[in-house]
Here is the input.
Amino acid sequence: MKFLNVIVLVFLNILVTAQPLSESSFIYLNSSYDELNPVLTPDGNTLYVTIANRPENMGGKKDPGDIWISTRTESGEWSTPVHGGAELNNRAFNGVAGFSDRGDEIYLLSHYDGNETPKTQGISVARSSGTGWSKPENIVIPYFQNKSGNLSGFVTPDRGVFVFAAETYGTKGVEDLYVTTRGTDGKWKEARNLGSTINTQFQELSPSLSADGRTLYFSTNGRKGSGSFDIYSSTRLDETWTNWSEPQNLGPEINTEGRDLFYRIYPDGSNLYTSTKNSDGYGDVKFKPALRSTPDSVIAARIDSVNIPARNDNNGGVKVYGKVINAKSGQMIQASVSFASIDVKEQAQTTRNSGFAVNIPPKDYIISIEAPGYVSTLEKVNVSNAQMNELEMNFKLQPVEIGTTVNLKNVLFEQGKTMLLPDSYPELDMVVSFLTKNEDVKIELAGHTDNRGIPSQNIKLSQARVDKVKDYLVNKGIDRKRITGKGYGGAKPIASNDTEDTRQLNRRVEFVIRKM
Here is the structure.
């Protein structure tokens, strides 16, 4: 599985004293495979790059990405990459988030469990042994979960901040950007969403920070841009990590009509990146020198003034395209993708080898994704104020199997009551459709609250809400014997209960497939 099938635009910090680079420096580094997430060591002489689906990866051609290593020769060229070895790689996606300022620690974008796919998620750290890296140690981030196929992010050289992109509970769309900081006790804190100024209902990916930690760089397909994914910058206005200036497109010197990600800028302003433009495969590493010798904060201020006009080549409509994949295997599947608004209905089909594409007027839509043998899902999207003419949306479906848990994120109740809100009906109707088409499936409904109030009352409320959902399904024709339900109150949180934003995540209804 490719990294969202996107090609990476990555900017690496080049030390002012390092030998200048040129486009020809990467003739031995680039290949017909997907080069992505390059990260340079602090001395500027070693490049760690993730390569997807290369046969020599730990998981072979199906491996979503292993770390490969290239070194700079005396002539200034980068050597042909060599595999990073079993210490840094397993069958999951492997990438580098950053290095400590002395280069004696490497932070890795995954957990490790031998050479197998790890059972837990997060980041890891390995330490220099003089001749290589020690075995990675998994880092615990409270309530960390990422439903996206890959993790992208950036650890600051002082090892105190980790910004990352993930699809998790509470995201505003698909992947959102989050931050976690390390306390004086050495433990990482629960991650915080960077807020609605940064995150849209579409995808935000591959964040990084300037040397002073004030400027955020990230890629998104949810704003006006040259292609489907463009790089943007935003300035942090205070210490909350949720107050940001309006993101600015980095302009045509950086962004192309292709997909551009993984921006990193360094003190001399030089940039390394990979792009789909003029590449012979999925992504090639390219280079742009510093325009002038200025700190990155000054460079950011200069390019913030660039304004890219919206394109008008689709008669005011939006072309939505993407793929539907198996959430477990990552393989494309045959599915039906339906877009419905008050006066518009469009449907697209995918196959096992191709995705979908549909042109829709700018409106609010409910998107239903269905496939035989998979749990149907529903998404909401608003393209009424879309700033792009093309939008990539990729969906994951879970196979129908015992133990599969589905969070009904659009099933909502009046506060403190059991009355279903009207916005709940489309998703509940999707559950009805799923159970109608899978007559052998039996489910358990699970109701959850936050931990405020009296525990016994929370259990009573969550049970009453489960009963209300069950009654709705039964009234729609589903046999009552196929549905059990239990209210758990606040006993099974998926986030902390310290803030209202995270308490909302804990107030939820799920269903679990119990029998087939």
Q: What stands out?
A: The first helix runs from residue 296 to 303. The radius of gyration is 24 Å.
